[in-house]
Amino acid sequence: MYRPAQFSSDDPQVAIDLMRAHPFASLISVDEAGGPVVSHLPLHWQAPSGTGPGGVGGTWGHLLGHLARANPHADLLQNRPRALVTFMGPHAFMSPRVYPDLMRVPTWNYLAVHCEVEATILDDPADKDALLKYLIADHDPAYADQWRSLPKDYSARMLQGIVAFSLDIISLECTAKLNQHRPEARTGMLEAYDQGTPDARALADWMRRLGDDPQDKP
After folding, report:
1. CATH code (residue 117)
2. Domain region containing 124
3. Distance CA 169, CA 195 (A)
4. CA distance 166 to 52
């Protein structure tokens, strides 16, 4: 990932918070012909000390998820376990009208995380079931009782239809492009984003959160 120094975040908590707040990720592998293979899916981040499926995880923890068994990416992940996962946080356009002078151009601000990962396939039905507990708790905790009440043969068939995995994070990069190098536009940017879309408002929150971080100073 292209990361100019002024936009590079080395705080792992920033990356973790982004992965948890924006869990719908892109899983990217390279096939035997050298071509890219991409699947879009929700992933659950778990700390390195986590005791759930997949073991203890890499230095930055691990990501739990699953693919449909019919998805060719599932076989590829087993045969070529090294992959890349990307998370896109809030992002929005920024008009040059926020600057106090006219000689400026538009830009796009965003936060993103890239993780290099090593995949481990989880074949044990108990591990698959534990993985689903995490995903249900993340996105629809009210559904947990309904899932538990389903006939055992039905839930077993559903588990057979997925390939579950743990992705150990072996390297991590985080970009927070918030125009930190243009302090003269900060007030105008905050005013514009505070009145904008949900993504724009989220960027304003991140600007305030990171504004006191020395690495974000121009």
Report:
1. 2.30.110.10
2. 5-213
3. 36
4. 10
